[in-house]
């Protein structure tokens, strides 16, 4: 936890330094200009909806507010955006919960528990309605000096490999996976694979040179970043539902006129609904293209193999993450999921 907080503080300080070289946001006496930074490539589902958010706000808020979008990590990468938002180096950002939130509050690791939540609505209900989950969510926003604007999910997580069909639990033995969130590492180890940490921008080159050959990600990503040039085998069932958000810097938000806030909230609510409703369908379409046009293969574990995977999660992964989630929060998650 201490090292995670250290990294978060370092990223925040780096973002503060970036303020000195970034231009101020004024484009006239009345119009507010804000930047929306996100690491997703333009073809990624979450990038598409970030752009829709900006376009809609710009149309309804013409003359009052204009949002400029910066995709593909042009301003800040996936591991840098939280610090940038906290410092005020950028007004709006696309944030992946499993990456950005655990360094602030380790209990957000609950999102990535394999097989616990059954949908995005189920997941969000824990952080919105359950007292333990809501305390985690409120703590994250307070500590990062951010405000919630919209949900913009990245999709359901599953495993992909360049080496062999993932048609059994044993297929993972000896693979070289990449992990992005810390919660992934215990699972890879339990499956007999040696994982290394890599940011999104380094995945393509690492697949190309053989540094890694496997990763868990959302279907949208294998297309958006052209990873499916190397990844040829996928495995279901989905492990968890990776949520993402459009967040705003709290100080910037507090200084906005009420009518501008209302525009942002109205559009944010629309994007939350549309992005969430379309993400599973979009993921299915990408997997269909992966199989039919890219020559890929997707195996879905069932029967004895699925039971073996679930046993590994229950008997090896959960005990290994005891330092990543407080016991009382883990119990609250399990109780919530059992309802």
From TrEMBL:
<dbReference type="Pfam" id="PF03480">
    <property type="entry name" value="DctP"/>
</dbReference>
<dbReference type="InterPro" id="IPR018389">
    <property type="entry name" value="DctP_fam"/>
</dbReference>
<dbReference type="GO" id="GO:0055085">
    <property type="term" value="P:transmembrane transport"/>
</dbReference>
<keyword id="KW-0732">Signal</keyword>
<dbReference type="InterPro" id="IPR038404">
    <property type="entry name" value="TRAP_DctP_sf"/>
</dbReference>
<protein>
    <submittedName>
        <fullName>C4-dicarboxylate-binding periplasmic protein</fullName>
    </submittedName>
</protein>
<comment type="similarity">
    <text>Belongs to the bacterial solute-binding protein 7 family.</text>
</comment>
<keyword id="KW-0813">Transport</keyword>
């Amino acid at each position: 936890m201490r090292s995670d907080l250290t990294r978060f503080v370092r990223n925040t300080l780096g973002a503060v330094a970036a303020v000195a070289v970034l231009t101020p946001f004024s484009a006239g006496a009345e119009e507010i200009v804000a930047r929306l930074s996100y690491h997703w490539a333009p073809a990624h589902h979450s990038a598409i909806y970030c752009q829709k958010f900006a376009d809609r706000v710009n149309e309804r808020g013409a003359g009052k507010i204009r949002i400029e979008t910066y995709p593909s990590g042009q301003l800040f990468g996936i591991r840098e955006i939280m610090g940038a938002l906290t410092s005020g180096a950028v007004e709006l950002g696309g944030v992946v919960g499993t990456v950005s939130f655990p360094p602030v509050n380790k209990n957000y690791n609950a999102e990535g528990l394999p097989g616990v939540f059954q949908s995005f609505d189920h997941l969000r209900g824990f952080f919105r309605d359950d007292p333990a989950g809501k305390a985690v969510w409120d703590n994250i926003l307070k500590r990062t000096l951010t405000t919630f604007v919209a949900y913009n999910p990245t999709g359901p997580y599953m495993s992909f490999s360049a080496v062999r069909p993932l048609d059994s639990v044993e297929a993972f033995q000896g693979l070289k996976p990449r992990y992005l969130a810390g919660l992934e590492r215990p699972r890879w180890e339990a499956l007999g694979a040696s994982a290394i940490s890599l940011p999104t921008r380094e995945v393509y080159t690492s697949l190309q040179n053989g540094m890694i050959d496997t990763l868990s990600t959302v279907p949208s990503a294998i297309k958006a970043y052209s990873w499916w040039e190397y990844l040829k085998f996928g495995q279901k069932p989905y492990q968890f539902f990776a949520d993402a958000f459009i967040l705003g810097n709290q100080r910037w938000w507090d200084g906005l006129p009420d009518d501008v806030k209302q525009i942002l909230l109205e559009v944010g609510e629309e994007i939350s609904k549309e992005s969430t409703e379309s993400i599973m369908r979009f993921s299915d379409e990408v997997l269909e293209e992966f199989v039919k046009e890219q020559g890929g293969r997707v195996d879905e574990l069932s029967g004895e193999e699925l039971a073996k995977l679930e046993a590994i999660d229950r008997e090896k992964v959960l005990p290994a993450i005891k330092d990543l989630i407080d016991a009382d929060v883990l119990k609250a998650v399990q109780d919530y999921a059992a309802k």
